[in-house]
Amino acid sequence: MSQSSLNDLFIVQRTTLLRTLQRIVDHPATAEDLLHDTWLRVDRVLRDRPIDYLEPFVFKTARNLALDHLRTRHNHARTVVNDMPVAELHNIRSCATPVEDETHATRLLCVLSQHIAHLSPRQQRIFSLNRLQGCSYLDIAEQLGISASTVQKELKLIMAVCVGVAARLDG
User: Crossing angle for the helix pair 148-170 and 98-117, nearest 10 degrees?
Assistant: First the structure.
């Protein structure tokens, strides 16, 4: 697909894309921004490689950007309490002492390492590439010769293991 195909698609599907984004983020201005970001992201990908099924790719990209936005907004909301400046949040003392924090972190790392060692070699590689090296699903899929969907499913299983381990140690 070419740049002109992308432009044509955005002209035809702009309203539908915008409505989809508005339903996800529930804010018209943010949806407009995400629509623009979607075009930029897809344009950048098109410069690197052709996309066989452009319309589904555009909609999936828009949806992913909207979900990333919601995730970021949620994480930000968890850290900002009553519009308290972030600098003041860093001055709040933890209930745990630094020694307790370090002990807990060391124990968590040890137990996680043991569980990760029991994963298949492919799962270990996926975990390492994504969580330690910051590679995207597509990058990992290309490196390992598997689909991005498989990478996503494997990471979901791996992260469930990690969350389970952390919950058991915190409980």
Answer: 140
Model confidence pLDDT, tens digit, residues 5-19:
888 888 899 999 999
Residues 35 and 100 in one domain: no
Strands (E) in 20-140, as ranges, are: none
Residues 6, 39 contacting (CB under 8 angstroms): yes
55 and 15 in a common domain: yes
Residues 8, 75 within the same domain: yes
pTM for the whole structure: 0.46
Q: Does residue 122 contact residue 158 with C-beta atoms inside 8 Å?
A: no
Residue 61 structural domain: 3-79
**Domain final residue pick, 32, 53, 79:** 79
Q: Quick check: helix, strand or coil at residue 36?
A: helix
Place of tokens 């469930």: 160
